[in-house]
Amino acid sequence: MRPEILFPLFAPLSTLKGVGPRVAPLLARVAGDKVRDVLWLRPHSIVRRTPAVLSAAIDGQVMTFEVAIQDHQRPRTSAQPWRMQVADETGLMTLVFFGRFGEGLAQRHPVGARRVVSGRVEESKFGRQMVHPDYMVAPDKADEIPEVEAVYPATEGLPPRRVRAFAHEALSHAPEMPEWQDPAWLARQGFPSWREALARTHNPEAEADLEASSAHRRRLAYDELLAHQLAMAQRKAARRREPAPRIAAGALAGRIQAALPFRFTGAQDRALADIRADLAAGERMSRLVQGDVGSGKTVVAMCAMADVAEAGGQSALMAPTEILARQHFETLSGPLEIHGLGVVLLTGRDKGAVRAAKLRALASGAAKVAVGTHALFQDEVAFHKLQLVIVDEQHRFGVAERQRLQAKGPGTHLIAMSATPIPRTLELTMYGDLDVSRIEEKPPGRTPVATRAVPMPRIDEIVGRLKQAVAGGAQAFWICPLVSESELSDLAAAEQRAKALRHLIGPGVGLVHGQMPAAEKDAVMSDFADNKLSVLVATTVVEVGVNVPNATIMVIEQAERFGLAQLHQLRGRVGRGRRESACVLLYDPPLSETAQQRLDILRRTDDGFAIAERDLELRGGGDALGLRQSGLPDYVFADPFAHRDLIAAAGDDARLIVSRDPDLKSERGQALQVLQELFDWKAGLALRDAG
User: Fold this and answer.
1) Which of 21, 82, 432, 541 could form a disulfide with 102 if both were Cys (CB 3.0 to 4.6 A apart)?
2) Within the chain, which residues score under 50 in pLDDT?
């Protein structure tokens, strides 16, 4: 139950002064539906209102003047504005008002009255003017005009100043909280109290107060990170308390490994050792295996499946698309079936007797391994003894979907796999409740991809070379950032590019994009994988997807518009066979300094983890690496780049709290319960569960 101290913050917007039925939906659009959401709005800039005389007015500046009203100029038509002439001892200015309230202006501000006006000065063909002053008050009320004013996000019908008023009203509802931060840490960091940090957020005095590095912003960021890390540490501890089957490493996996046409890298051996230690511990495993495309994650998982099968259990591998599921099935079924382990592929395409036979094999235990899509967690799919669940590209599945599959066996072990390299500094924010194994080495025999950057004016030369390569039997990807022409962008559209390439190269050019139905997309990708198409024009949907060893060319159009990690992911689609491969980065000159650095890094290294770290540095805050869709939490105050030192500190603090006070019963523990409720980061909150 929510602590009483938080009731005012979780009250509806209508409890704020001035928020009625008309304003509430507008404010909800800017902030959210609770007082807390308005309290958490942050100003994005400040306005300095410089007091001056009219002769010192500067075009484009926000300034404040004390003036006398000299004249009202009524509009001749409804389309014209109401103009008010004002003056001081040094000059003249016109105040301009659009709308139908001119008569009211004349009554409230009669000729001869003195007023203090504040707003943006403009030099126009009518002379010096101020359109709709922000403030216009009598001199005895001049203190109502702030010299420094915070500017908030706004929406149509709700200007920034009204949002600011509501944010300050929300601040008046904020109680003093019990201190949940460690006193020694608080003193060392020089952090203000929680409420003082919010007050300083809403009353900035300088641009520095808006920065992520300010003490009050760091305080609030640490609170948010601690709430999140604590929830994940509690969840991890709870999982470890769950009994799970003890599974020992068997001889079968060794025989399968020995029969493979390659040897494991040291990183693969370490990842497998981590998994085996978890399986043998008798606690429920939740481990992420992270590695670049082609680093050998699936065969590591295959050895774990063999251990489970030898101990009498079953494993299920779930992939986000049918084509990925088929690729995993092809990788696993040969080595496992040679050694007597039945493997079934279960997708939405299975119907009738074929589907029924597969379901019987899983229910009876005749099939030791199931590979499939969402079809695996459907109600009619039953397992004889499911002990290990492997989720590929786990961020592509909802939590409920992962849990439904795990629920098909008691105390099921979990391996999540991801080909998106995450900087170490961000690992805790995304996977703090998982143990992480990194496969950082590439298997021997992978041909490095020759990467070069080419300016767009040379595109005809690239198309000519592509035509020659295709004539010689090669296959190529051509990546475009957009699906169709947009008025907002001059990017070449995928549909237009496919049409142009068909005209130049021939009919063997396919097209896939995110708006296509999944079955249609899979069909085109399958045709490409089966060499029925020579060139696949695509948006970034191929980032994680089809494995085509024959594809040796990757052309990325408008490469400067992509993130570095995304470019690396796309490049990983080629160089998967023994033949030499090339990646061409087409760019629009001139390049910005950051774009130049990005392309240079890509040419110099193919280490996905090093690239991810560098990408984080180059992008800084915001949606670093485009990772929102990969599971990066949507923080309010914390910036994963600017506050990366706080992420590690919050992780350490959370682990210490859970080891010393697992039930949060101490004085600080009770304050931390308030913190978790405040941010909605709670260990039992299913929607935030990573596995």
Assistant:
1) 82
2) 487-491, 543-544, 621-629, 684-691
Residue that the structure tokens 């001869």 belong to? 112
- Chain mean position to CA 225: 16
- Cβ partners under 8 Å of residue 392, min gap 6: 298, 317, 318, 319, 320, 324, 328, 417
> Per-residue DSSP letters for 193-207?
-HHHHHHHHHS--SG
Neighbouring-strand partners of residue 85: 71, 94
Q: Could you tell me if 568 and 618 are in contact, meaning their C-beta atoms sit under 8 angstroms apart?
A: no
Strands (E), 127-221: 127-131, 135-137, 148-151
- Give the model's pLDDT for residue 261: 86
What does the angle CA 150 – CA 153 – CA 157 come to, to the nearest 5 degrees? Answer: 115
Extract the tokens encoding 627.
Answer: 């990772």
**Radius of gyration of the chain, Cα coordinates, nearest whole angstrom:** 31
Measuring CA to CA, which residue among 642, 604, 648, 607 is closest to residue 622? 642
| pLDDT at 565 (0 to 100) | 77
Range of the domain at 420: 251-439
Domain count for the chain? 4
Please give the Cα distance from 484 to 489 (Å, whole number). Answer: 10
Tell me 442's DSSP state: P
Same domain, 417 and 453: no
Which position has the token pair 């390049």? Answer: 591
Tokens of 251: 């001889």
The answer to whether residues 177 and 69 belong to one domain is: no
342: tokens are: 């039945």
Q: Do β-strands 551-556 and 581-587 pair in parallel, antiparallel, or remain unpaired? A: parallel
Q: Which of 541, 576, 605 is the last residue of a domain?
A: 605
Which DSSP state fits 176? Answer: P
Are 558 and 428 in contact by the 8 Å Cβ rule? The answer is: no
pLDDT at 126: 82
Q: Establish if 355 belongs to a structural domain.
A: yes
Cα angle, residue 105 at apex, residues 156 and 92 outer, rounded to 5°: 100
Interatomic CA distance for residues 674 and 3, integer angstroms: 7
Rounded distance between C-alpha atoms, residue 430 and residue 120, angstroms: 44
Please say whether the beta carbons of 448 and 575 come within 8 A.
Answer: yes
**pLDDT score recorded for residue 567:** 86
Helix (H, G, I), strand (E, B) or coil at 521: helix
Instruction: Give the angle 144-146-148 at the CA atoms, nearest 5°.
Output: 175
The reply to whether 174 and 110 lie within a common domain is no
